[in-house]
Design brief:
2% of the residues lie in helices and 47% in strands. It is mainly β.
Length: 289
Protein backbone atom coordinates (compact mmCIF):
# COMPACT_ATOMS: atom_id res chain seq x y z
CA UNK A 1 0.00 0.00 0.00
CA UNK A 2 1.05 3.58 -0.73
CA UNK A 3 0.23 6.32 1.80
CA UNK A 4 -0.01 10.08 1.35
CA UNK A 5 -0.45 12.38 4.33
CA UNK A 6 -0.53 16.06 5.26
CA UNK A 7 -1.96 17.97 8.24
CA UNK A 8 -5.57 17.41 7.10
CA UNK A 9 -5.79 14.14 5.15
CA UNK A 10 -4.30 10.66 5.17
CA UNK A 11 -4.98 8.59 2.03
CA UNK A 12 -3.96 5.08 0.98
CA UNK A 13 -3.67 3.48 -2.45
CA UNK A 14 -3.06 0.08 -3.98
CA UNK A 15 -0.69 -0.35 -6.97
CA UNK A 16 -3.22 -2.85 -8.31
CA UNK A 17 -5.50 -0.69 -10.39
CA UNK A 18 -3.91 2.51 -8.98
CA UNK A 19 -6.91 2.39 -6.67
CA UNK A 20 -7.63 4.90 -3.92
CA UNK A 21 -8.66 2.80 -0.88
CA UNK A 22 -9.12 5.24 2.00
CA UNK A 23 -9.37 8.97 2.62
CA UNK A 24 -9.28 9.90 6.29
CA UNK A 25 -10.06 13.43 7.46
CA UNK A 26 -7.70 13.70 10.40
CA UNK A 27 -9.66 16.30 12.34
CA UNK A 28 -12.50 13.81 12.92
CA UNK A 29 -10.66 10.55 12.05
CA UNK A 30 -13.49 9.82 9.59
CA UNK A 31 -12.82 7.71 6.51
CA UNK A 32 -14.87 9.24 3.71
CA UNK A 33 -14.29 6.31 1.35
CA UNK A 34 -16.32 3.09 1.22
CA UNK A 35 -14.71 0.17 3.07
CA UNK A 36 -14.88 -2.37 0.22
CA UNK A 37 -17.24 -4.83 1.96
CA UNK A 38 -17.41 -7.77 -0.47
CA UNK A 39 -20.90 -8.66 0.74
CA UNK A 40 -22.06 -5.63 -1.26
CA UNK A 41 -19.22 -4.45 -3.57
CA UNK A 42 -15.58 -5.30 -3.04
CA UNK A 43 -13.99 -2.28 -4.68
CA UNK A 44 -13.19 1.24 -3.49
CA UNK A 45 -12.44 3.57 -6.40
CA UNK A 46 -11.59 1.67 -9.59
CA UNK A 47 -10.08 3.33 -12.66
CA UNK A 48 -12.19 2.76 -15.77
CA UNK A 49 -10.00 2.30 -18.87
CA UNK A 50 -9.95 1.73 -21.84
CA UNK A 51 -13.76 1.52 -21.74
CA UNK A 52 -16.46 2.83 -19.43
CA UNK A 53 -19.39 0.55 -18.68
CA UNK A 54 -20.29 -2.50 -20.71
CA UNK A 55 -19.85 -3.42 -24.36
CA UNK A 56 -22.55 -5.12 -26.35
CA UNK A 57 -21.79 -8.86 -25.98
CA UNK A 58 -18.62 -7.75 -24.11
CA UNK A 59 -16.90 -7.14 -27.44
CA UNK A 60 -15.95 -4.42 -29.90
CA UNK A 61 -14.93 -4.45 -33.56
CA UNK A 62 -11.85 -2.61 -34.83
CA UNK A 63 -10.53 -2.81 -38.40
CA UNK A 64 -12.63 -5.88 -39.04
CA UNK A 65 -11.43 -7.87 -36.01
CA UNK A 66 -13.42 -8.57 -32.84
CA UNK A 67 -11.92 -8.07 -29.37
CA UNK A 68 -13.31 -9.10 -26.00
CA UNK A 69 -13.27 -6.64 -23.09
CA UNK A 70 -15.12 -7.02 -19.81
CA UNK A 71 -17.08 -4.22 -18.21
CA UNK A 72 -15.03 -1.08 -17.39
CA UNK A 73 -11.87 -2.45 -19.03
CA UNK A 74 -8.65 -3.91 -17.65
CA UNK A 75 -6.85 -1.04 -15.88
CA UNK A 76 -8.54 -1.75 -12.55
CA UNK A 77 -7.12 -5.30 -12.55
CA UNK A 78 -3.54 -4.48 -13.58
CA UNK A 79 -0.47 -3.66 -11.49
CA UNK A 80 0.72 -0.10 -12.05
CA UNK A 81 4.30 1.13 -11.72
CA UNK A 82 4.57 3.51 -8.76
CA UNK A 83 6.63 6.66 -8.40
CA UNK A 84 6.07 8.53 -5.14
CA UNK A 85 7.41 12.08 -5.40
CA UNK A 86 6.76 13.22 -1.84
CA UNK A 87 4.61 12.65 1.23
CA UNK A 88 1.73 14.31 -0.60
CA UNK A 89 2.09 13.26 -4.26
CA UNK A 90 2.27 9.95 -6.13
CA UNK A 91 2.17 8.82 -9.79
CA UNK A 92 0.92 5.49 -11.06
CA UNK A 93 1.80 4.37 -14.59
CA UNK A 94 0.48 1.68 -16.95
CA UNK A 95 1.27 0.95 -20.60
CA UNK A 96 0.40 -1.67 -23.18
CA UNK A 97 1.67 -5.22 -22.78
CA UNK A 98 1.46 -8.44 -24.75
CA UNK A 99 -1.64 -9.31 -22.73
CA UNK A 100 -3.45 -5.99 -23.24
CA UNK A 101 -2.70 -6.00 -26.98
CA UNK A 102 -4.62 -9.28 -27.32
CA UNK A 103 -7.84 -7.59 -26.14
CA UNK A 104 -7.15 -3.94 -27.04
CA UNK A 105 -4.95 -3.35 -30.12
CA UNK A 106 -3.50 0.02 -29.12
CA UNK A 107 -0.31 1.36 -27.59
CA UNK A 108 -1.02 3.69 -24.67
CA UNK A 109 0.52 5.41 -21.66
CA UNK A 110 -1.86 5.90 -18.73
CA UNK A 111 -0.62 8.05 -15.85
CA UNK A 112 -2.61 8.76 -12.69
CA UNK A 113 -1.48 11.43 -10.25
CA UNK A 114 -2.89 11.73 -6.75
CA UNK A 115 -2.03 14.83 -4.76
CA UNK A 116 -2.93 16.30 -1.36
CA UNK A 117 -3.30 20.03 -0.86
CA UNK A 118 -4.67 21.13 2.53
CA UNK A 119 -8.10 19.43 2.86
CA UNK A 120 -8.27 18.40 -0.83
CA UNK A 121 -7.29 15.22 -2.68
CA UNK A 122 -7.02 15.50 -6.46
CA UNK A 123 -6.87 12.76 -9.07
CA UNK A 124 -5.45 13.60 -12.50
CA UNK A 125 -5.64 11.18 -15.43
CA UNK A 126 -3.27 11.56 -18.37
CA UNK A 127 -3.46 9.37 -21.46
CA UNK A 128 -0.71 9.68 -24.07
CA UNK A 129 -0.72 8.13 -27.52
CA UNK A 130 2.87 6.92 -28.19
CA UNK A 131 2.01 5.70 -31.69
CA UNK A 132 3.54 7.44 -34.69
CA UNK A 133 0.62 7.00 -37.06
CA UNK A 134 -2.46 5.57 -35.36
CA UNK A 135 -5.20 7.24 -33.36
CA UNK A 136 -5.72 5.92 -29.85
CA UNK A 137 -9.40 5.11 -29.25
CA UNK A 138 -10.40 4.92 -25.59
CA UNK A 139 -12.78 5.88 -22.83
CA UNK A 140 -11.81 6.85 -19.30
CA UNK A 141 -13.60 7.38 -16.02
CA UNK A 142 -13.57 7.47 -12.25
CA UNK A 143 -15.66 5.31 -9.93
CA UNK A 144 -15.00 6.50 -6.33
CA UNK A 145 -17.39 5.16 -3.68
CA UNK A 146 -18.00 7.41 -0.70
CA UNK A 147 -19.12 6.07 2.65
CA UNK A 148 -22.55 6.79 4.06
CA UNK A 149 -22.13 6.56 7.82
CA UNK A 150 -25.19 5.03 9.45
CA UNK A 151 -25.80 4.40 13.14
CA UNK A 152 -28.56 4.63 15.74
CA UNK A 153 -28.98 8.35 14.99
CA UNK A 154 -28.26 8.59 11.26
CA UNK A 155 -29.77 6.64 8.35
CA UNK A 156 -29.04 6.49 4.62
CA UNK A 157 -32.09 8.68 4.05
CA UNK A 158 -30.55 11.48 6.13
CA UNK A 159 -28.01 12.07 3.35
CA UNK A 160 -28.42 14.03 0.14
CA UNK A 161 -26.47 15.20 -2.89
CA UNK A 162 -26.44 18.92 -3.63
CA UNK A 163 -25.72 20.05 -7.21
CA UNK A 164 -24.32 23.49 -7.98
CA UNK A 165 -26.10 23.99 -11.33
CA UNK A 166 -28.95 21.49 -11.84
CA UNK A 167 -32.65 21.70 -11.00
CA UNK A 168 -33.42 18.25 -12.41
CA UNK A 169 -31.63 15.06 -13.42
CA UNK A 170 -32.43 13.42 -16.75
CA UNK A 171 -31.14 9.87 -16.64
CA UNK A 172 -30.99 6.94 -19.04
CA UNK A 173 -32.06 3.51 -17.93
CA UNK A 174 -29.73 0.50 -18.11
CA UNK A 175 -30.71 -2.93 -19.42
CA UNK A 176 -28.15 -5.71 -18.88
CA UNK A 177 -25.28 -3.18 -18.69
CA UNK A 178 -26.36 -1.39 -21.91
CA UNK A 179 -27.84 2.10 -22.22
CA UNK A 180 -31.45 2.52 -23.21
CA UNK A 181 -32.69 5.49 -25.22
CA UNK A 182 -35.57 5.87 -22.78
CA UNK A 183 -35.06 8.57 -20.14
CA UNK A 184 -36.68 9.55 -16.88
CA UNK A 185 -36.56 12.80 -14.94
CA UNK A 186 -35.91 13.39 -11.25
CA UNK A 187 -36.96 16.83 -10.08
CA UNK A 188 -34.53 18.12 -7.47
CA UNK A 189 -35.59 19.93 -4.32
CA UNK A 190 -33.61 23.19 -4.39
CA UNK A 191 -30.82 21.37 -6.27
CA UNK A 192 -30.83 18.54 -3.71
CA UNK A 193 -31.26 14.82 -4.37
CA UNK A 194 -32.35 12.96 -1.20
CA UNK A 195 -30.68 9.56 -1.04
CA UNK A 196 -32.60 6.34 -0.62
CA UNK A 197 -31.68 2.75 -1.36
CA UNK A 198 -34.48 2.37 -3.92
CA UNK A 199 -32.86 4.93 -6.24
CA UNK A 200 -30.33 2.31 -7.34
CA UNK A 201 -32.31 -0.91 -7.27
CA UNK A 202 -32.49 -0.77 -11.09
CA UNK A 203 -28.76 0.10 -11.50
CA UNK A 204 -27.01 3.46 -11.92
CA UNK A 205 -28.40 6.84 -12.88
CA UNK A 206 -26.64 7.56 -16.20
CA UNK A 207 -26.53 11.29 -16.97
CA UNK A 208 -25.64 12.75 -20.36
CA UNK A 209 -26.63 16.37 -19.77
CA UNK A 210 -25.40 17.24 -16.28
CA UNK A 211 -24.69 20.96 -15.91
CA UNK A 212 -23.02 20.83 -12.52
CA UNK A 213 -19.28 20.55 -11.96
CA UNK A 214 -19.59 20.37 -8.17
CA UNK A 215 -21.62 17.85 -6.19
CA UNK A 216 -21.66 17.91 -2.38
CA UNK A 217 -22.44 14.89 -0.21
CA UNK A 218 -24.11 16.15 2.96
CA UNK A 219 -26.55 15.06 5.64
CA UNK A 220 -29.15 16.68 7.86
CA UNK A 221 -27.70 15.43 11.15
CA UNK A 222 -24.28 17.13 11.27
CA UNK A 223 -22.05 19.56 9.41
CA UNK A 224 -19.66 17.05 7.77
CA UNK A 225 -19.50 17.28 3.99
CA UNK A 226 -17.62 16.11 0.95
CA UNK A 227 -17.33 18.34 -2.11
CA UNK A 228 -16.69 16.49 -5.38
CA UNK A 229 -15.45 18.69 -8.22
CA UNK A 230 -14.78 17.66 -11.83
CA UNK A 231 -14.14 19.31 -15.20
CA UNK A 232 -14.39 18.15 -18.80
CA UNK A 233 -16.32 14.91 -18.28
CA UNK A 234 -19.35 14.81 -20.64
CA UNK A 235 -21.04 11.91 -18.85
CA UNK A 236 -21.71 11.13 -15.21
CA UNK A 237 -22.94 8.14 -13.23
CA UNK A 238 -24.45 7.94 -9.75
CA UNK A 239 -24.67 4.45 -8.27
CA UNK A 240 -24.72 2.27 -5.18
CA UNK A 241 -24.93 -1.49 -4.73
CA UNK A 242 -28.31 -2.72 -3.54
CA UNK A 243 -28.95 -1.55 0.04
CA UNK A 244 -25.27 -0.68 0.58
CA UNK A 245 -24.12 2.30 2.64
CA UNK A 246 -22.17 4.18 0.01
CA UNK A 247 -22.67 6.41 -3.01
CA UNK A 248 -20.53 6.40 -6.16
CA UNK A 249 -19.96 9.68 -7.98
CA UNK A 250 -18.56 8.76 -11.38
CA UNK A 251 -17.19 11.29 -13.90
CA UNK A 252 -16.85 9.69 -17.32
CA UNK A 253 -15.26 10.43 -20.67
CA UNK A 254 -17.15 7.65 -22.41
CA UNK A 255 -20.20 5.57 -21.71
CA UNK A 256 -21.54 2.02 -22.05
CA UNK A 257 -22.82 0.82 -25.41
CA UNK A 258 -26.41 1.50 -26.32
CA UNK A 259 -28.64 -1.51 -26.94
CA UNK A 260 -28.64 -0.93 -30.72
CA UNK A 261 -24.92 -0.19 -31.15
CA UNK A 262 -23.14 -1.93 -34.06
CA UNK A 263 -20.07 -2.64 -31.84
CA UNK A 264 -17.70 -0.67 -34.08
CA UNK A 265 -15.25 1.09 -31.75
CA UNK A 266 -14.75 4.07 -34.05
CA UNK A 267 -18.47 4.90 -33.88
CA UNK A 268 -18.95 4.18 -30.17
CA UNK A 269 -20.68 7.04 -28.34
CA UNK A 270 -18.26 9.12 -26.28
CA UNK A 271 -15.11 7.44 -27.59
CA UNK A 272 -12.00 9.64 -27.44
CA UNK A 273 -9.84 9.61 -30.58
CA UNK A 274 -6.39 10.81 -29.53
CA UNK A 275 -3.92 11.77 -32.26
CA UNK A 276 -0.38 10.30 -32.26
CA UNK A 277 2.04 11.85 -29.74
CA UNK A 278 -0.78 13.80 -28.07
CA UNK A 279 -1.85 13.74 -24.41
CA UNK A 280 -5.35 13.82 -22.95
CA UNK A 281 -5.87 15.01 -19.37
CA UNK A 282 -8.80 15.23 -16.94
CA UNK A 283 -9.03 15.87 -13.20
CA UNK A 284 -11.44 15.41 -10.32
CA UNK A 285 -11.00 16.29 -6.67
CA UNK A 286 -12.61 15.91 -3.27
CA UNK A 287 -12.52 18.42 -0.43
CA UNK A 288 -13.38 17.28 3.09
CA UNK A 289 -14.82 19.10 6.08
Amino acid sequence: MITLENDSIKASFSPKGAELQSVIYKQTNQNYLWNGDKNFWGKFSPVLFPIVGGLKDDAFIYEGASYHLSRHGFARDNEFTVRQLSDTEVFFFLEQSCETLKVYPFEFHLSIQYKLEENMLSCRYEVTNPSHGKKLLFSLGGHPAFAITTNDDTTYEDYYLEFNADEELIYHKIDQDLICEETEVIELDKKKLPLKYELFHQDALVLKSLKSNLISLRNYKNTSRLDFKFEGFPYFGIWAAKNADFICLEPWCGIADTIGHNQELVSKEGIVALEPNKTFSRIWSISLS
